[in-house]
Specification:
about 15% strand; six-stranded parallel sheet; about 300 residues; alpha/beta; 9 strands; single chain; NAD binding
Length: about 300
């Protein structure tokens, strides 16, 4: 039997499945719940335990990790008679790794404390590849003692792990991350269309650009998506649309102007409205191609 903390994992999607499997590989006992039966079977095949409900998954857990799409889903799994707060044992640590509004995280921490539960908001950056390779960047909000307790678990999931401040701070930094990523992808997409229309060897051009000041993790990770027009979702346009809403709303609340971010948020929304919401966010290339007169 493992002496490591018992982990409950709620949400086994594109990110949650490989992340939970990395914890299993690190020796943690993981009990998971999600709505898709095939994902539960995948967890069991990896050495985890499939639960039939949230209540069953969390009842004996020392640490409860959640990874779901947005604030409404976090609230749905956290509250109510079948939710985490009513069924977790007192003293358990909740680590919410979803990307949600900072206020949702602040409210969750407050409500959980009334039940004797501790909370960290710990959204991640790095996409599906980062989740699989356990090299995610994890930005955390909450108390130092809880961060210290969670650090060994987080180190099994990511490479750069930073406590950014009190509850909600992790989500604020994640919002800034999503702003930078979206603007970066948009710039790369515009460069790709410009290069191709100019008759330049695209592979060679992207290689040399990525070796200079224009280089970035975004270009490294998404270069093949651009070259091959492969938009299989690692991070869907639908989710980046949600995140751009979070950052533009949060920026408005604190009085920060995001002129370029606002434009890119509209371009993401436009791509989603054209039916591309289920594609990877590198599909912003398709929007630039449409604007440039290409049939896509």
């Amino acid at each position: 039997m493992s002496n490591l903390p018992k982990v409950a994992w709620i949400g086994l999607g594109i990110m949650g499945s490989p992340m939970s499997e990395n914890l299993i590989k690190a020796g943690y006992p993981v009990t998971g719940f999600t709505l898709e039966q095939d994902k539960l079977e995948r967890l069991a095949a990896a050495g985890g335990t499939a639960a039939g409900s949230i209540a069953e998954a969390v009842k004996d857990a020392d640490v409860i990790i959640t990874m779901v799409p947005a604030s409404p889903q976090v609230e749905a799994i956290s509250y109510g008679p079948e939710g985490i707060l009513e069924n977790a044992r007192s003293g358990a640590l909740i680590i919410d790794m979803s990307s949600i509004t900072p206020q949702t995280s602040v409210d969750l921490a407050k409500n959980a404390a009334e039940k004797g539960l501790r909370v960290l908001d710990a959204p991640v950056s790095g996409g599906e590849a980062g989740a699989i390779e356990a090299v995610l960047s994890i930005m955390v909000g909450g108390e130092q003692a809880d961060f210290d307790a969670a650090l060994p678990i987080l180190e099994a999931l990511g490479k750069t792990i930073v406590l950014c401040g009190p509850h909600g701070s992790g989500q604020t930094v994640k919002a800034a991350n999503q702003l930078i990523v979206a603007v970066n992808i948009q710039a790369c997409a515009e460069a790709v269309v410009f290069l191709e229309k100019s008759g330049v060897n695209l592979q060679a051009a992207l290689d040399v650009l990525n070796g200079g000041l224009a280089g970035s993790t975004v270009l490294t990770r998404k270069k093949d998506n651009f070259l091959n027009r492969d938009f299989k979702p690692g991070f869907r346009i639908d989710l980046h649309h949600k995140d751009m809403g979070i950052v533009t709303d949060a920026a408005r609340n604190v009085g920060a102007a995001l002129p370029v971010g606002a434009v890119v948020a509209q371009l993401v929304a436009s791509l989603r409205a054209q039916g591309d919401g289920g594609l990877d966010h590198s599909a912003l290339l398709r929007a630039v191609e449409r604007l440039s007169g290409s049939q896509v």
